[in-house]
Specification:
alpha+beta; Glutaredoxin; 8-stranded mixed beta sheet; 10 strands
Length: 228
């Protein structure tokens, strides 16, 4: 049974201090030759962690609902991030991956994108739903989920499970919901069995390479890396 998060204590703040995405801007070329999909293997790195999340409609869900059953691209961001090489880059990459997938409808149906906030104090489900709309979630394309958590306490084991570092910037305001974070940009490619098969950092988050890796996972013979 899904339970809906209450509105009590919800924070209604202004839009994030980042420009809206240029959704239909052309995706630049990768700049290097990609190997043929399926001609290489992606090793199993780790299992995606379990945990409780809240979807953009305010329902409590298991994170496993969003990391199994499909090829999943998951990124951790916070909506107020203004570093162009941080969260905005991840969101741009997700939008670009969706655009590339339009040319491959069969693969598109097997893929989901997940944006998970690590700022639950500010990014309640209402704020996140607005952010999702601004980022073009409703545009035609692969499924794109936007998730948050109940609190920092419920977020902590998810961050630990993914190995995602997160620190409050020393010179930022300490008022909850206004602090700034420092973190390494990480985006996780997860197979349908819930295993992380690739981790992209800032320098390697190339949309064409991500889609190539998705095609490689899609070419694997099932069942592969069955969930235990």
């Amino acid at each position: 049974m899904k339970l809906r998060a209450g509105l009590a204590g919800a924070i209604f703040l202004c839009a994030p201090a980042i420009p809206l995405l240029a959704h239909e801007a052309p995706v630049p070329e990768a700049g290097f030759v990609l190997p043929a999909p399926g001609s290489y293997q992606l090793a199993a790195i780790q299992r995606a962690p379990e945990g409780e999340v809240i979807d953009r409609s305010g329902y409590f869900r298991s994170l496993e609902d969003f990391t199994t059953g499909r090829i999943t691209l998951l990124g951790l961001v916070y909506t107020r991030c203004a570093d162009p090489e941080g969260c905005p880059r991840a969101t741009w990459a997700f939008s670009s991956v969706r655009r590339l997938l339009r040319s491959d409808p069969a693969l598109e149906k097997r893929v989901r994108l997940v944006t998970l906030s690590f700022d639950p104090v500010h990014d309640d489900f209402i704020s996140l739903a607005r952010y999702a709309d601004r980022m073009g979630r409703a545009r035609p394309g692969a499924e794109w989920q936007f998730l948050t958590t109940r609190s920092k306490r419920t977020l902590a084991p998810i961050l630990e499970g993914f190995g995602q570092d997160l620190r409050v910037a020393a010179d930022s305001t300490q008022l909850p919901g206004t602090e700034e974070f420092t973190h390494s940009l990480k985006v996780f490619l997860i197979d349908p069995a819930g295993l992380v098969r690739e981790i992209y950092s800032t320098g390697y988050l190339v949309p064409q390479a991500v889609v190539n890796d998705m095609r490689t996972l899609a070419a694997e013979r099932p069942p592969n890396h069955a969930r235990r």
